[in-house]
Amino acid sequence: MTTPAPTRVLMVGLSCLDHIWQVERFPPLSSRTTAHAYRTQGGGPAATAAVTAARLGAEATLWAVHGGDFSGQYALSDLQKEGVETGNVRSVPGATTFVSAILVDPQGERHIFPYRGAGLTDTIDGLDLNSIGSFDALLVDGRHPVMAEAALQEARRRGVPTVGDFSDTRNWHLTPLLDYLLVSEECAEEALGRNEPEAALATLRRHPKQLVGITLGEEGFLYDDGDTVRHVTALPVEVVDTNGAGDVFHGAYTYGVARGWSDERCGLFASVTAALSCTGIGRSAIPSAATVDRLLEERTAQEMEEMRWT
């Protein structure tokens, strides 16, 4: 019997270092607020999506840029421990890695304070664009637009499906190159000019065949496949930390696209994966595919139907 080829995904974009504090009160009442938990780990949308895909069982590769500093080395080591292929994570001597301070409040909501680094050159030098044809799906987060555009153009030439993770409308010129444009609620509001997610879907679409979707946190996932608007409600969980949940969603969705799943299955699988990731701090609770599948199987058909409506 022939062993099926592993699912292979490529993520292109931000890799950074996160310093995460769980605080007892936010906003603070004085100059000093106690933190009852602390964790340092790699972060960034594309990097966390790659970690998610690896946890789910895919062969995940990341193209990103670090500084040649301690933070860059730490983030790289974190990725390698997760099994992410990092041969094209470029380390720039003298550059400063993107880092974030993240405060997680008692309700699990995160507040991010990013420092965007310095000297992180965005170039395709040294990248093997021809290798993109060997992947089953590509995700970009738009943070390194030169790398992202080159990868998207090559993916289009080779028929590799493409997913975009956009938290705002920066580098919006990349969006017509995407098969799946999945944005945050904040990005949808910025694009439409008001907070009305369903109305924003038509504004977001960049070409007729593009699926557009909006992640809505605890309100789930709203998407339009070109024929119908659908909504997947979020799986109720005991929330510890929402940091990175959107990145996890995109990684799981890209994994589903790479597997050739239907739009509905991709959205449901990604929603459950993202919800489970909120039950621990940082990346610690990102589940395996077996865990997600087992949860989906254990729920009754009626319960699963309640997670979606047309």
In short:
By secondary structure, the chain is α/β, with parallel strands linked by helices. The protein has 9 helices and 14 strands.
Description of the molecule:
With 310 residues, this protein is α/β, with parallel strands linked by helices. The protein has a single domain, classed as UDP-N-acetylmuramoyl-L-alanine:D-glutamate ligase (3-Layer(aba) Sandwich). It is built from nine helices and 14 strands. It has helices spanning 45-55, 70-81, 145-158, 185-192, 197-204, 245-259, 263-277, 289-298, 301-306; strands at residues 8-12, 16-23, 35-43, 59-67, 85-92, 99-104, 110-115, 137-140, 162-166, 180-184, 211-215, 221-224, 229-232, 308-309. Strands 5-4-1-8-9-10-11-12-13-14 form a ten-stranded mixed sheet, with helices on both faces. A four-stranded mixed sheet has the order 3-2-6-7. A hairpin with a 5-residue loop joins strand 11 and strand 12. It is globular, with a radius of gyration of 19 Å. The relative contact order is 0.15. The model has no long low-confidence stretch (mean pLDDT 92).
